[in-house]
Structure formats: C-alpha cells, structure tokens
Amino acid sequence: MGMRFTVLSSGSTGNATVVDNGEIKLLIDVGFSAKKMELLMKERELEASSIDAILVTHEHSDHIKGLGALARKYDLPIYANEKTWEELDRQIGVIAEGNKRVMETGGIEEFGTLRAESFGISHDAAEPVGYCFYEGEQKLSVVTDLGYMSEKVKEKITDSDSLVLETNHDVDMLRVGHYPWSIKRRILGDKGHLSNEAAGEALCDVLTHKTKSVYMAHLSRDHNLMDLARLTVNNIVQERAPEAKQLRLMDTYFDRSTKWDVLDSE
C-alpha cells in the first residue's frame, strides 16, 4: 500500500493527523477529547485501538487535549522530547512509565518499515518539533505552529511527496481583528504562527518535481479563510515556482477529517 495519511482535524481549536503504512498507524497530536478523537477516526474507518503510537509536536492544549485520556484508555506509547515531557507531566495526568518514550529533537524512530524523524521549529513552547515520515522512497512532512520557516526546517522538508503545512492567518485580517495587541504580536512574531504569505514563500524553496500535494493546516477561525489561504499560496507559488503547476493545494477542516491521501498513487 505504501504510506497514506489523513488530517483528522486541524485548526486553532485542535489538531491531529494519522500516518499509516498498512502495518503501523501513528497518531500525531491529540488535540481533542478522547471521545472526539474516536469519532474523527471512525470517519476514516479507523479504531483508536489500532493506533500503535502517538507522536507529540508540543504541549499546547490544541495538540494534547485528549492525549492522556486516549493513551490511558488504549495503553498507547507516547513519544516526545524531554522538555516537552516536563510540560506533559504537569498537564495530562499519570502515564504508565513504559509508555513514556523519549524521542529527542532530531532523532529517528523506526516503526517497522515506517520511519519518523523529528526536527526543531520556532514556536513559543518548551521544545516544539515537526516530523518527517518515510516509507521507502515516500516522504511526508508535517509542520505547523512555527513563527517562521528557518533554513534548517526547509532543508528537512524539501523533496516531500506531500506536506501538511501551517497557513494560520491572513496578516491584514489579524491586524484588524479583535485580539489584544499582545496576542497579535505573539502570533506575528518569530515564535508565533505562519501566515498564508509566509507559507507560500517558504513553499517555493522546498517544492520539487516530487511534491504532489500540500495540505493547508492550522487555520485561524477568526483571522483566515480557506479560500483566501488557497488563493494567496497559489498566487505566490505560480509566480515564483511555475514548475510546480501540478501541485494540489488541499483543504483541512476544523470539524472533520480529510480523505486518505495515498502517496504512491498517481
């Protein structure tokens, strides 16, 4: 089958993604209650009991809301770096020692033939990370919650078959929005969130002939629109990277899952 994935849900209120190679199923983040996670997985004919491990990007509530409850209910191992574990221990309740797995930033874990590699990103969390997943020659990158796209991050995610990439906000919508300036400054800062424009510009540096799709993720419900995100990113990519004209820009949803994307399909 190769590798496939579904973004169970993504946005300012919660985030979760499943990666599956036919033998191993990995869950990236648990940003909803355990009950909601079960419902989202059933949309894609998944049972929570079939998950083999959970990988955590960082400790903010929209990524770990149901982490403790889901891990305890199904006896699931959780992978995170040490600094993130320090924060998780204060937030998610008791986890069986055998299920507390340390995956240092930059580390690689092998789950059968499915490999997961973490890399550091810039966000206002203890030690936030993104992930690349490899199955044979296939590569999927999942990177959200970053204030800016560093050269190191670009190097890691270049040549992906597909990316789940943050397009959090439209800068103009955010600037005139109702948030206090202190929060706006945080979102716009180097440890905040990636704007539509910044995502489009970063894509131009990482797209190759291999890249077939980009899932626009973690959209703000107050300061973005999916149509606007898609238009902004598409305009930048078409102008600066015309060789990527076959690229598919895909929606994600705050209340439902995306269809399975099989990376070895044409």
UniProtKB/TrEMBL annotation:
User: Which residue stretches, if any, does this entry annotate as coiled coil?
Assistant: none
Q: Which reaction does it catalyse?
A: 3',5'-cyclic CMP + H2O = CMP + H(+); 3',5'-cyclic UMP + H2O = UMP + H(+)
Top-rank taxon, per record: Bacteria
- Pinpoint the Metallo-beta-lactamase domain residues: 13-218
Which SMART domains does its entry note? Lactamase_B
Note the InterPro entries from the entry: Metallo-B-lactamas (IPR001279), RibonucZ/Hydroxyglut_hydro (IPR036866), WalJ/YycJ-like (IPR052533)
Note the PANTHER family from the entry: EXODEOXYRIBONUCLEASE WALJ, METALLO-HYDROLASE YYCJ-RELATED
Q: What does this protein do?
A: Counteracts the endogenous Pycsar antiviral defense system. Phosphodiesterase that enables metal-dependent hydrolysis of host cyclic nucleotide Pycsar defense signals such as cCMP and cUMP.
Which protein is depicted? MBL fold metallo-hydrolase
Which species is listed as the source?
A: Paenibacillus alginolyticus
